[in-house]
Amino acid sequence: MSSCQPLPNRPRYCLRQLEGVLLTQEQIEARVAALGEEITRDYADRSVTVLGVLNGVVVFLADLLRHLDLPCRLDFVTLCSYGDCAESNGEVSLVKEPALPIAGECVLVVEDIVDTGRTLAWLVEWLRPQAEEVRVCCLLDKPSRRVTPVGLDYVGFEIPDHFVVGYGLDFAQAYRNLPYVAVLKPETYQVVGGE
Ligand code: 5GP
Question: So what CATH class is 45-161?
Fold first, then answer.
């Protein structure tokens, strides 16, 4: 795959399923710092409720938060998106609601990756009637896969249509702990999806 860099020799457990590194640790660090500066500038000292979408967002959010020079509160939601291994079908439910009040707040939704857009569009629709303002920040955007339009205010990286793992993103709960974003070999999820 031309857009990938070679995998480091460690960790060895993942080398068979991964095609290569799409975004290195250094690229991610630099972009997350720049996103934090941009968000800080835009909110200009307004207080914000940062709402992370679990579980994939935890690594990105932990890094981003430390680049926000703003009064902010932190909360999380857990969503369940239905569908098959390949994509969500738009049926979404809220498994964990925000614990903090949303009414009248400026909410910054932070998401790991936007693919078809169905999950995020559902969450934004759910938040809008309650919140004063809703903005969205995602680390990765796959625009070529979009089915439901959704406004993204802050995007870390636009990426091509590959299934990616690492930096919080999983495949069957594995690989979240990789410090970089890697491309999963298609035969890996095609085999599992066909079972
Ligand atoms: P959407 O509703 O936008 O199709 O789905 C978004 C969700 O699908 C993400 O929050 C993530 O859980 C999952 N997803 C979509 N593409 C990828 C990918 O390339 N890698 C991983 N690990 N998850 C993905």
Answer: alpha beta
Task: Indicate the domain borders of the chain.
Answer: 45-161
Mutation test residue for ligand 1: of 61, 84, 113, 137, the one with most atoms within 8 Å of CB:
113
Which of the residues are catalytic? 115
Give CA angle at 93 (91, 95), nearest 5°. 150
Q: Give the span between the Cα atoms of 167 and 77, in whole angstroms.
A: 19
pTM of the model: 0.92
Mean pLDDT value across residues 42-46: 92
Q: What is the pLDDT of residues 140-167, one digit of tens each?
A: 999 999 999 999 999 999 999 999 999 9
Q: Which are the contacts of 106, defined by CB distance < 8 A and separation ≥ 6?
A: 43, 46, 47, 48, 49, 131, 132, 133, 135
